[in-house]
Amino acid sequence: MKVFSRKYLLALAVAVWAMLSLALAQDPSPVGWVQAAEGEVLITSPGQTPRAAERNMPVYNRDEIATSQDASVQIVFMDDCLVSLGENSRMQLSHISFDQTAPQQALFDVDFLQGAFGVVSGRIAEENPEAFQVDSPLAFIGIRGTEFVSLVEAGQETHALFTGGPVLVTTAGQGDSSAVSNRERMCAKLAQARVVYADAHAILQRNGDFRRKSIVAALNQEAEDLMAAYGCPTP
Amino acid sequence: MSLSTRNFIAGGFVLAALIALAVAALAESDTREHDRENRSTLARAEAMADEIEALHAEIQASTVQLTVPGTATILTPGSLPSEPRELTDEERAAMETVRPDTSLPWPTTE
After folding, report:
1. Which of A150, A128, A173 is nearest to B66 (CA)?
2. Which chain B residue has its CA at the smallest distance from A192's CA?
3. Are B98 and A117 within 8 A, CB to CB?
4. Is B41 an 8 Å CB contact of chain A?
5. Is B106 among the domain residues?
6. Nearest CA-CA distance, residue B32 and chain A, Å
7. Are residues B11 and B52 in the same domain?
8. B contact residues 43-102, partner A, Cβ 8 Å cutoff
9. Domain count, chain B
């Protein structure tokens, strides 16, 4: 009886832990709301049944939003960014976070998978432009406070600036949406460089070679400047 | 001074000179070793800087900046973004339909 109780308690604890993990993983805070929807617009959260979009409906990180023929939807995000989808379009909300008290830690990362998209950027692009990243199968798009429109079709994409600017469009690869972004590549390389430069600095300091140490210090400064320019996270 | 004493002193000088030479050779060897280490350390750092510069150049080459409203860039698989060009009337009309409407009322989030 005693052994059974222990097993029962253990199973209960595991079940509670699993439920808590699931609840935390779902991140229940909305990152935006439907401002207008016409026609058949479906919002799908991972592992859940698609729900038909209607005005004021919240959207969450990792949701996929899809429109059918003759349908459209406009979403307003927590930083006041507006994104509209035309017919036969699909978009995924990869990660959006915005805390008004810490705008430098904000992130806006969405994937345009297919169709037509219009964007009027919000406070994230205004206050921390490097944190605003839109990905499409062929491009990474960075904007600095502006309105732009993208047409994403199989085999061709058109990205246009409408007002404000600038918009930076960078090739992603061969249409592979899972390609590592140039920013990530550069940040990884710069992180590696920091280690190399720190080692070099220590060796040259130990050997008293101040001339070469100053050269390494200059290289390190260049790397620091690039880290800032690419918006790399500080280790 | 006896011959053996002179020999002893001379031997001492020779020994001291040999020790001094050995120490100098060791110091020289250390310096050379350090210099080799310093040179290879700097070479590693400079090689890393070259890799960074090459990656930066590659990213710059694959990036197009749109600065003039009404311009667009086209991407096709495996090619660099096209140089910015003005939207055609047809493209502009297609894109107008998807521009966000900034006059819509704000959602009620309560």
Report:
1. A150
2. B48
3. yes
4. yes
5. no
6. 11
7. yes
8. 44-46, 48-49, 51-52, 55-56, 59, 62-81, 87, 91, 94-95, 97-102
9. 2
- A10-37 in b/e form (b: 16+ CB < 10 A) is eeeeeeeeeeeeeeeeeeeebbbbbbbb
CB contact under 8 A, B107 and A56: yes
Q: Is residue B105 situated within a structural domain? A: no
Q: Are residues B70 and B40 in the same domain?
A: no
Query: What is the spatial distance between Cα A146 and Cα A214, in angstroms, rounded to a whole number?
Result: 42
| Whether residue B74 sits in one domain with residue B56 | no
User: Is residue B1's pLDDT more than 70?
Assistant: no
Domain boundaries, chain A: 32-179, 183-229
- Above 50 in pLDDT, residue A177? no
Closest chain A residue to B59, measured at CA? A182
B16-62: pLDDT as tens digits: 888 888 888 887 777 888 899 999 999 999 999 999 999 999 888 88
B25 close contact with A: CB closer than 8 A: no
Note the pLDDT tens digit of each residue in A109-141: 999 999 999 999 999 988 888 788 898 988 888
Residues of A in contact with B76 (CB under 8 A): 138, 155-157
Q: Are residues B73 and B52 in the same domain?
A: no
What gap in Å lies between CA B34 and CA B40, rounded to an integer? 10
Residue B11 confidence class, pLDDT cut points 50, 70, 90:
confident
On the question of a cis peptide bond just before residue A166, with omega within 30 degrees of 0, the verdict is yes
Residue at B110 is within a domain: no
Rounded-to-integer distance, Cα A228 and Cα B58, Å: 18
Residue B86: closest CA among chain A residues belongs to which residue? A160
- Domain housing B53: 1-61
Instruction: Judge: domain A32-179, CATH 2.60.120.1440.
Output: yes
Q: What is the pLDDT of residue A210?
A: 93
Instruction: List the structure tokens of A125.
Output: 């692009």
